[in-house]
Design goal:
The chain has 242 residues and is mainly α. The protein contains twelve helices and three strands; from the N terminus they run E-H-H-E-E-H-H-H-H-H-H-H-H-H-H. The longest helix is centred in the middle third of the chain and has 36 residues.
């Protein structure tokens, strides 16, 4: 029993154009060609098409499928394809990370600045080592507990909300000496306690790094706007005086 090209396409839910293309590249050819070039596919041809569809579901390119169908080592082809998929998975995860960073930056800034994006996605040729500022133990604490723009963690969201509250104060001309600013600093103290595990010295040294846009860039940290730093320091100075 033979199937025409149209019947074959209908049975396996592929387009007639796909059937014709597989024939053209020698992947799945008809066993018989009738008058006027009409093509007829046997049961064996149908099995061949099923194999191709299965291999395509593994995201194998047609060139590799053809090698498998030509009875070359299927193990070597699949191992090579596994490596390819693993590389793609790494690239996809990297893209997801950058996308989450962009979303969080947009939440903070209301806009995307290309220079900030490049600072996050393209590492500078010469990065200053964290060893210049922190011990190995301190770096372990910071790397594990600092908020990261590329992650949608509760800690990251808390710090982002804090920054947004400061931005709104600046936008609405609310004084750093206001009760609102005082509450913001109290919340900042609570978050800092969670992040730095009560290590005041570590917190002070990390703040010195964050106050400098240059050092922040060298350590591949998203820079804090100067107006936000100024607001925090003015609010802190007012509390110290009262």
């Amino acid at each position: 029993m033979y199937l025409t090209s149209g019947e074959l396409a209908k049975r396996f839910k592929v387009s007639l154009r796909t059937i014709r293309y597989y024939d053209q590249i020698g992947l799945v050819r008809p066993s018989k060609v009738g008058e006027g070039g009409k093509r007829f596919y046997s049961g064996e041809d149908c099995l061949m098409l099923e194999k191709v569809i299965l291999l395509k579901s593994l995201a194998l390119p047609l060139e590799e499928i053809k090698l498998v169908m030509d009875k070359q080592s299927i193990e070597s082809i699949l191992l090579a394809h596994k490596s390819y998929l693993e590389e793609q998975a790494v690239n996809i995860q990297s893209s997801i990370t950058h996308t989450v960073s962009l979303l969080n930056i947009h939440k903070l800034e209301g806009n995307i600045h290309w220079e900030d994006l490049l600072a996050l996605t393209v590492k500078p040729e010469k990065n200053r080592s964290w060893n210049a500022f922190f011990t190995d133990e301190e770096q372990e604490v910071l790397q594990g507990r600092l908020p990261k723009l590329e992650e949608d963690t509760l800690s990251t969201q808390k710090w982002m909300n804090l920054v947004r509250r400061i931005q709104l104060c600046i936008q609405d001309n609310i004084s750093p000496a206001s009760e609102h600013a005082k509450l913001i600093l109290e919340d900042m103290d609570i978050l800092s306690e969670e992040t730095f595990l009560g290590d005041q010295d570590l917190m002070d040294r990390f703040w010195e790094v964050r106050r400098s846009s240059q050092l922040s860039n060298e350590l591949n940290l998203y820079p804090i706007k100067q107006e936000i730093i100024d607001f925090i320091e003015q609010a802190f100075a007012f509390i110290q005086e009262t």
